[in-house]
Amino acid sequence: MAAQKATIAYISHGGGPLPLLGDPAHQEMVDNLQSFAKEVRKPEAVVVFSAHWEESEVSIISNPRPSLYYDYYGFPEESYHIQYPVSGNPPLADKIQTLLSHKNISTEMEATRGLDHGVFVPLKIMYPEADIPVIQISLLNGLDPEKHIQLGRALRSLLSENILILGSGFSFHNLKAFFGARDQQSRQLNEAFDDWLTETCMSASLHEFDRAERLMEWQNAPGALYCHPREEHLIPLHICYGLAQRAADKRLSFDVMGKRASCFIWS
């Protein structure tokens, strides 16, 4: 396989549109994502797997001018007028569909769905000029960890291209906990899972078979089901690992709404 030109990153994208509304509880996240975007080579395209789209088969947004999908509720009116006039990349979407079909992974091209906030919120922070074409790809219903690792593996030939591949989720995603009591036990569970996730993604001493096994059996990690009562915000990490198949090169860590969150980068 050719040398890796692509950057792969599992990112925590925050709570709804709040990172774009000046929310102080998201400032550390905003600062980290902005710094990350400045540190990596500017990509020619961005491919995003967002926690907020699940389908029965892998769906790919093929629209050359995708709209935005404001898939959140109860936020200030301004959050429903956010603009990110980015272009799509139909040729790259076609290539991704072909790569997946070669691995017998069924796909569907989606021409009408807009980019959800798991896409436009982090990208507006990272690349506010909206001058890089973007493709969004769905997760699979059922959220099977192994299937999502295989999905990433099927796309490994993309790593020879100057693109950014984002798994956009949240390393901590318990909505009740964000607004509940910030006691010592909740902090310990948050940190225990984050420590486990960091070791799993970053440890150079782990054999790749063992790393994959840990990710597939993530529910057994300390604090796992507290941090992820439902795993849709974790599963984009499995796609990133399937693409990389090695330890991450870098971790970003910050607090969001009183909870520790992490991002993992392969470059």
UniProtKB/TrEMBL annotation:
Transmembrane segments: none annotated. Keywords: Dioxygenase, Metal-binding, Oxidoreductase, Zinc. Pfam families: LigB (PF02900). Its cofactor is Zn(2+). Residues 29-248 form the Extradiol ring-cleavage dioxygenase class III enzyme subunit B domain. InterPro entries: Extradiol_dOase_DODA (IPR014436), Xdiol_dOase_suB (IPR004183). One of its GO terms (molecular function) is zinc ion binding. Belongs to the DODA-type extradiol aromatic ring-opening dioxygenase family. PANTHER family: 4,5-DOPA DIOXYGENASE EXTRADIOL-LIKE PROTEIN. This is Dioxygenase. It comes from Kangiella profundi.
